[in-house]
Amino acid sequence: MSRDLVCREVVELLNGYLDQALPADVLAAVEAHLAGCDGCTMVLEEFRQTIAMTGMLTEDQVTPSQRETLLAAFRGWSLA
Amino acid sequence: MVRASPQDLALVERLRAGDEDAFMMLVEQHQAMMLRIARMYVSSQAVAEEVVGDAWIAILRGLDTFEGRSSLRTWMYRILANIAKTRGAREGRSRPFSALIKEDEGTAVPDAWFRGLDDPGAGGWSTFPNDWRGIPEDRLLAGETLRVVGAAIDALPPLQAEVIRLRDVLGWTSEEVRNALDLSETNQRVLLHRARAKVRAAVEEHLRSVNT
């Protein structure tokens, strides 16, 4: 990437950055930008915190009727 | 491709031995997600439930020949995706995923926050994002904020919601997500970015409203 990135472009690349999915030249440009930009660094930190918050959520449970059906299927399978 | 872990192989042994607790633990871990993934391929919740039921049967049948060349989870969701896709095709549903990806071209933060093209600093910040740095961690992770996060995820377009659930709630790798949802690397990345951007925006909005 031969030119500097502007903030507006950088915020769209931050999740690729967090996922280590950026090509080397783009990565270098993002890092160079972040080093001198408080606004984008703040948004990066907010994405990190958003991921941490999302990680605190839990998945729904299995309903009793699904449990029964699947347990019956398993018993049928293991006896076969 | 990640190979099956020792834990995967031990679990497969217990299942082959007919261990019901082991099976129900696996069901508890995956049923809700399997249903949601199936739902993306077929026309109704009822059909999705049938698909997941069929997938469990196919998983059990396949266990005898499971060789551990991929992780158990990757293998299970490939079976599920194949069954769901076949069923969706039989229903005449063409896969809507690429359309879903294009329908929503949002930006991570509102466009109005950046300087316009006629400005010498075009594309730089004109309104700074809300600063969360002063907010204690326990406040961010409190029930009230997490409810905002959950509601924001529920409000996402279906494919974005599933990608963020798999990646950030369940901690799957991008490869596992691509496999389960049959997505290209680029699509996975774009969907995850849009999803996280909307969740971040919802949290920001919430923090702004409680701080003022």
Structure description:
The complex is a heterodimer of chains A (80) and B (212). Chain A is an all-alpha fold. In chain A, 71% of the residues lie in helices and 0% in strands. The longest helix of chain A is centred in the middle third of the chain and has 17 residues, at 38-54. Chain B is elongated. The model of chain B has no long low-confidence stretch (mean pLDDT 88). At the A-B interface, helix 1, helix 3 and helix 4 of A face helix 2, helix 3, helix 7, helix 8 and helix 10 of B.
Quick tags:
heterodimer, A: 80 residues, mainly alpha, 4 helices, 71% helix, elongated, B: 212 residues, 10 helices
What's the short version?
With 80 residues, chain A is mainly alpha-helical. Helices cover 71% and strands 0% of the residues of chain A.
Class per helix and strand makeup of chain B:
mainly alpha
Q: Provide the gyration radius of chain A in Å.
A: 23 Å
- Largest two-chain interface: A-B, 44 and 53 residues
Assign an overall shape of chain A.
Answer: elongated
Average pLDDT of chain B, to the nearest integer?
88
Q: In DSSP terms, counting alpha (H) and pi (I) runs of 4 or more, how many helices of chain A?
A: 4
What is the terminal separation of chain A in angstroms?
Answer: 61 Å
What is the number of beta strands of chain B?
A: 0
Spans of chain A of at least 5 consecutive residues whose pLDDT stays below 50 are none
Label the structural class of chain A: mainly alpha
Helix fraction of chain A, binned, reads over 70%
Q: How large is the share of residues in beta strands of chain A?
A: under 5%
Reconstruct the topology from this structure.
The complex is a heterodimer of chains A (80) and B (212).
Chain A (H helix, E strand, L loop, with lengths): L6 H12 L5 H12 L2 H17 L9 H16 L1
Chain B lengths: L5 H11 L3 H22 L3 H19 L8 H19 L6 H6 L34 H4 L2 H12 L3 H12 L4 H8 L3 H27 L1
